[in-house]
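Long-time lurker. I teach an intro course on protein structure, and each term I like to show students one example going from raw sequence to a predicted 3D structure in token notation. This year I'd like something fresh instead of my usual example. Would anyone be willing to generate the tokens for the chain below so I can use it in lecture? Attribution to the forum is fine with me.
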Amino acid sequence: MRMLARYTAVANPSEISDLARAMAVELTVEVPEKVIDRYSHLNEDLVARVEKIEEIGASLHQITLSFSGNLPGADLTRWLNLLLGNCSMLPGVTLQDLEIPEEVVADFSGPRYGIDGVRQLVSVAERPLLATALKPRGAPVSDLQQICRDFVEGGGDLIKDDHNLIDDSNEQFLERVVACVDSIRSSEQGRRVLYLVNLMGPAEELDRRLDLALEAGADGGLVAPWVLGLDRTRKLIKDHPGVYLGHPSMSGVYTRSGGGISAGLVHGTFARLAGIDGSVFVNAGGRFSPTREEGRSVANKLSEPLGGLKRGWAVPAGGMSPERVPEMLADYGSQVMILIGGAILADDRGVRGATESLREAIDQESVSK
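-- Reply from a regular --
Happy to contribute to a lecture. Here you go:
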């Protein structure tokens, strides 16, 4: 049982074999070859194997390493250390893809709800879901309540706190959450709209804050796994049943060009292993500069078979406008959350009018498909 990891690496053809072996050693035992030779079992049981090297461009190569399935374990901290670790400091090395044995995936619970479970909660069988971000920080709680009411009455499906909507104390946090929950529930009129609170605060307070929010009627949380820590996120989700979206804050450190981890693994595979039901990622045409192909690669990783784990929602974001809805539906189909925040807040028709218009556009596009 071995796990395959595919990397791209920038190197001269004459150096690539040595680099591949150096990576295999660095990621697993980090000792000179002379020390490896002292222990007959190291190459067989611990040191990664170089399975394949392919030249895919000028000085660009794909390296496939395999790792013993006993090495990753059930904590994602160990996964990151094993799969990239010290090699993250080698320029031009990117972890692009993984083939994970089902026996290894079985150590993880994955998303509690995923696509199908969230659909059941909100009683929406086929169409894309419409989501918004509750913001800005600094707005009176009464304004945030009004945003909640207008979005729900306009036909929205999910409200998440903005990742910058941060409260300085548990008391402030609870006061705001209770007020927003009350506004949402009193506006639903027989529907179910999900409300997810932002989990950003001192590490020792996160469990308590999440308990307070769930007890107050929130449905789950917005987590930033590349800020909180990937395995801390997994444990938080495991211990507190609810719906969770992952936010991409800090993920650019991993996914930027020149080395790191592919966006598909960051927002797709690792998100599902951590238990995230839907993954927010920056989409083409917004404030950032990914390609449409990169967005589709994330969606593919969120929905492809991964042991017995549930599929996760693709949540393209990052300055999306209503005009981009047709393109997003073309790229992601019906298994997508259309997340639009600032454009709804700035719309001259108000939050309710903007939301109604978006729902109409989503419904019409879905029917035409």
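Some talking points for your students: The chain has two domains: 2-105, 114-368. The mean pLDDT is 95.
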